[in-house]
């Protein structure tokens, strides 16, 4: 994981304000009931509303900056969450959970197959009987991956109450052997060009390999959806939204 990318936690929230994924995970947690664990919890965008519904919640993340912002936001809302610094590949919380999730492609910070399997095995040990593990990763598009030529291009613009309009440019290349897109993100304003320059490398998990990785991790893929509306997964759907249980 690029620590530099997540140092500016408040900017992260402005750049990625959320969307239907937050509602999906909140509804899924309410349907499942019980204790909730989010891995790669970031600033708590998805976990804090779940905790506000009355679920005992734990959030684990590797970034101290993201966790500090999560604590600030939870305190401001008057919500209790246990925030922990840790690596999703190797943690032992000494208890199990009824609902575990990894949102917003956070799983793709793990680039090696062994790391993914180790993560899944660790999650398996933290699942209570009848528990569900849910995560979303993008569905790789080989045409888009092939266009990652290292050229810096504008990705987005978002408003910052302190800086004004912030533009986001990204330059990416795709390492086909490693299945990793290697990017550099540039955040700029008219008066502060490139005030943040941070690397971000994200793995692709192709649909055929995903069930095998889960099986090696002691998990079973119960259902795979293609978008937040619940459409079945297909070759042209944008997401692999995976609902899993202990094998």
Automatic annotation (TrEMBL):
Record flagged with keyword Transferase: yes
Family matches, as CDD domains: AdoMet_MTases
Keywords: Methyltransferase, Transferase
Transferase listed as a keyword: yes
Domain Methyltransferase positions: 36-130
Ranges in a coiled coil: none
GO terms for biological process, alphabetical: methylation
MF terms in GO: methyltransferase activity
Protein name: SAM-dependent methyltransferase
Natural source organism: Actinoplanes lobatus
